[in-house]
Amino acid sequence: MSAEHLDMTLLGKEYRISCTPENRDELLATVAFLDDKFRELGAKTNSSGEKLAVMTALNIAHEFLQYQRGNGFDMPGMKRRIGLMKARLDGVLAQQDKLF
Questions:
Q1: Using CA atoms, how far apart are residues 70 and 60, in angstroms rounded to an integer?
Q2: pTM of the prediction?
Q3: Whole-angstrom Cα distance, residue 87 to residue 5?
Q4: What is the C-alpha separation between 13 and 32, in angstroms, rounded?
Q5: 43-77: per-residue pLDDT in tens?
Q6: Could you tell me the pLDDT band of residue 1, with boundaries at 50, 70 and 90?
Q7: How many CA within 13 A on the CB side of residue 35?
Q8: CA dihedral 10, 13, 19, 23 (to 10 degrees)
Q9: Rounded to whole angstroms, how far apart are CA atoms 12 and 16?
Q10: Which residues partner with 95 through β-bridges?
Q11: SS3 state of residue 14
């Protein structure tokens, strides 16, 4: 497996991370998930920057621990939602490709 780079932006900062081609789609979904969480919590709390990152990390960790303990985090449901978002994005991108 050869490593490649993925450029991403979170909280207004750019990051370059290494990933394998096999993990690229999962990593893109993870970035989209995290970005959604930042936006969601940022809108609720009017937080930004480091404070928003820490609060988001705590919320995600809490959801994960609830899931581990069987208290209701629906991982299959989340995967379905991510799959639906990906399908919608693929459809929109396909329409854009036809325009050009």
A1: 15
A2: 0.61
A3: 24
A4: 15
A5: 998 888 889 999 999 989 988 888 777 766 567 77
A6: low
A7: 13
A8: 10
A9: 13
A10: none
A11: strand
Distance CA 8, CA 23 (A): 15
Tokens 């988001």 locate to 56
Q: What does the mean pLDDT of the chain come to?
A: 84
Host H or E run for residue 13: strand 13-19
Name residues whose C-beta falls within 8 Å of residue 40's C-beta, 6 or more positions apart in sequence. none
Give which of 35, 32, 40 is closest to 86, Cα–Cα: 32
Residue 69, classed as helix, strand or coil, is coil
Whether 22 contacts 1, CB under 8 Å: yes
> Is there a contact between 32 and 78 (Cβ–Cβ < 8 Å)?
no
Cα separation, 23 vs 41, in Å, equals 27
